[in-house]
Amino acid sequence: MRALRFLPFLLCLALVASCASAPSAAGGELSVSLRRAASSDFKNYGWGFSNPYIPFKGLILDKLLGRADLLVLVVEIEAPAKAEIQLLGAQSGQAGLDYYDRTAFTEFWDAFDGYDQDIKLRRTRIARSYFPPVPVKLGKGSSSYFIAFVGKYPLKGPFDIRADFLVNGERREVELHLD
Q1: Model confidence at 58: pLDDT above 80
Q2: Mean pLDDT of the 156-163 span
């Protein structure tokens, strides 16, 4: 009789434990995909000049430096087991729209002065969220990183993006078409 009192608790515990999040990658192969970043993807990276994923706007900057625009993509990775991935490079298929690796993207933003605090925040945000220039060791689960293409404002599509990855020593190409 006493054990019956604990039965509802045990059933609830079993249900909660069975709903624990698990990686969604099925099988044994690592999945890599690209998608265009939405404004909701940038909300954790501040606003204004300290957010490196929102293109700057302003008459003075436009006149002094020429207006640039950003095409920011999200690299989504699903790893069913430990893995290693490296971004070898990316192309836009469009003249004047260039892929910037993390170092080049940081240098792009360093060309624009600002408050020291904004510059430090921007550099930290790039270091934490942009795809690293070295191989990344992943654990089981989901990961995502930003990559960016820089071109003259306004960017005009369509875009045929191709990114080359080295996944556990094997070359893999990922494509994305944007209208």
Answers
A1: no
A2: 92
Radius of gyration of the chain (CA): 21
Rounded Cα distance between 77 and 79, Å, is 6
* Encoded tokens for 125: 């945000």
Amino acid, res. 138:
L
Residue indicated by tokens 């909701």: 40
Which option is the CATH number for 24-178: 1.20.120.140, 3.30.70.20, 3.40.50.920, 2.60.40.10?
2.60.40.10
- Flag whether pLDDT at 4 surpasses 70: no
Crossing angle of the two packed helices 102-110 and 116-129, in degrees rounded to 10: 170
Structure tokens at 66: 């020429």
Q: The pTM is what?
A: 0.78
